Each structure stands twice: as C-alpha cells, then as structure tokens.
Amino acid sequence: MFESIISFLERHNSFILTTHDSPDADGLGAEAVLAAILKKMGKEARILNSSQIPRYLQYIKEGFEIEKWDSESHSFLLKDSAIVLLDTSEENHMGLIREAVKKAKETFFIDHHEPKSTCRLSGFIDSSAASVSELTIELACFMGFSLDPFTATAAYAGIVSDSGFFAYPKTSMRTFMAAMKTLEWGATPNLIYKQLMENSSFASVLLQKQALTSLTFHDGQKIALMVLRREDFANAGAEFEDVENIVNIPLKAKEVEASILLREKENGDVFCSLRSKGMLNVSKIAHAFDGGGHLTAAGFRSALGVDKTIKKLLSCVEQSGIS
Hints:
The protein is an alpha/beta fold. It folds into 2 domains: 3-197, inorganic pyrophosphatase (n-terminal core) (Alpha-Beta Complex), CATH 3.90.1640; 202-320, Diaminopimelate Epimerase, Chain A, domain 1 (Roll). Helix content is 36%, strand content 19%. It is built from 11 helices and 12 strands. It has helices at residues 3-11, 25-40, 71-74, 132-142, 149-162, 173-184, 189-197, 202-213, 230-236, 282-287, 306-320, and strands at 14-19, 44-49, 66-68, 82-86, 107-111, 122-125, 216-218, 223-228, 258-264, 270-276, 292-293, 297-302. The longest helix is centred in the first third of the chain and has 16 residues, at 25-40. It is globular, with a radius of gyration of 19 Å.
C-alpha cells in the first residue's frame, strides 16, 4: 500500500515537510509523524510551513521544531532537499512555499482529500482515510517504527480533529486502530480535548455571538449561512484563527443539512468553511472556487468580496441541491 511513499523517501536524504497554508491539527500531526519516521530512517527533515501555527495549536510544537518558510533563509535547502506536501495535493494551497516546488529535487504529496483533475504533482492519495495523521501512523506501523509520546499526541490531535472525535462519515476501524496505536505510544486524549475544545480565547466567544447575529437560512431551513466581516474581528479584538468550530454550531439544529461560514480578511479576500451532514457534497461547492475538501467538510478562498462570493456560493448550492 505504501510502496510509492517509501520509494520516494528512500530516494532522498534531505526533506522539507510542509502542509497547506493556515495549517491545522491534521497537517501538523502528519508532519510530526513523518519527521519522526525520517529520523528513524537516518534522513534529515525540517518542517517549514507558509504560515504560523494558530494559537490554539501551539502545544503541538512541544518536542520538535516547526518553522515558518522564509525564502531568504531557507532557499539554500532546496538544492539538496525533496519536498513532502501533507494534507493537500494542490500547489495553490501551499501558500508562500509554493515558490520552492520548482527548485526542489522532487515534490511528493500525501493526502486524503478527494482528488482533483487539476492536480499536477505526484504523490499518494487515500480518500477513504479520515485523516493524513491516520495514514502516517499506518505508514509508521508498516515500516515497523514506534513513536515518542510528543509525536503520538500530535498525531492523535490530527486524527480526532479530522474525524470530528470519531463522528464524521469517514471514521472507520482504521481510524480507531490508528488512534489506539497513538495511545499505546503515550498520547494523552484528555490534553488534546482540552486544547481543541476548551481552549478558545474570549474574543472567539464574542465572534460566535456576532456570527449567530448574522445567521440566515436558505433552501427552507436546510442551509445555514454566517458572515464575519473585517470589522467584526476588530470589534471583538479577535484574530482570524479565532473562528475555529463556529461553522459547526448551526448543524446542531436537525433541520439544517449544511452550514457555511464566510470570513473577510483585511484585504477584502474571503475565506469560506463549509460543513454538511452528508446530504450536500460540500467538496463540489469548494471545487467551484478552486478549493477542496471532503463530502462533509471543505473550504475555499475567494477574491470576489463578501457579497459576490455569497451570490455565487448560493447559486452553486442551488445547482448542487440537497440529495
């Protein structure tokens, strides 16, 4: 199953590990596991991401180093290094480090999202996996490696984050087995739950209040839409990352089949998070904006501004329909 990954890892001695821009728990957890695997193989690896780790995920850095990509400081690495892209297969989701792809010895992705026809990189996709952290744990086991408690805890965070604490449709026996393996290696589930679910800033609570104030319903009560504009972040004293989990709130209503959250950045660009109970394939909606994701969780960026993005988004939802 993992022959193509192992062949790639064996071809090179030095690696840059990275994930999509705005890294999440799954991308970071997979980076930690792959870094540990490469170390056990006698290889060199550095974790370099396009953007900083969100505040609520800072604890993942314990036990290993995660750096922000800087072309002036890190370009010298590209001559002798291959790049491994984790949790996405799309170059345009890589952020600033995308510039490094053409200069690296080789680039290979490991992903679990639905493949897109526009993908130009080579790599490994298993869209049946609940997370890339799950895949990298399986890879470690396949290669006969065990992990230290710090790395196991980072991987557990990635597994539960992308599986919705074992509730999302892609959760399978594989997911539980990978999680059990991290517990065997010393992962601490209670710590991860507190960090992911009980570690929000006060500003994020104010953002939840504002998001619910903006809440509108479409297609009867099946589609929930919330908008956070740039002034909402300023008024709450919040950071862009403080929206974590807000998109899931409307899904508590049994009538709501899908929830959408738009966030406006200072430059007017819009980030959109989409969640579904399964009746609407939100990855198809995201693909219309050159985004990506899964049947029940997806996202994209838009340079159209809030109002035009909403208009196009609702048109795409109407065309897709609730099955």
